[in-house]
Amino acid sequence: MMTLKKKFNVSSTEMEILQWLWEEDRKITSREIMDYFNGSVGKTWKKQTLNTFVSRLLKKGLLETESIGNKFLYYPALSRQDYEQCKARDFLEKLYSGSIRNFVAALSGGERLNKKESDEIRELLDE
Question: SS3 for 63?
Fold first, then answer.
């Protein structure tokens, strides 16, 4: 699994772009991105504005690019599921020293889990 360091400082707009690219599930030109966000979402981006967001996502390793002729195609560097797993791991590492036990203890507020909750967690871990 890909390890991402400090790449979760993603702005809400950068996340909107990533989410749309995940939904589209294809390589997309900057013109298509601009047309979608300016047309369907109601943004008023200029070319430079979009280039800034795309550049940041490329620098963070969250987007990749491919050139075909004089066109650049953009696509996510990892799947939504991989991104969420990396983000969850990062969260666990930063706040709970990587310990699921510490996370569950914090989640339960120090109270004992009931049998159903305990069984659900055990089942999840077994998967």
Answer: strand
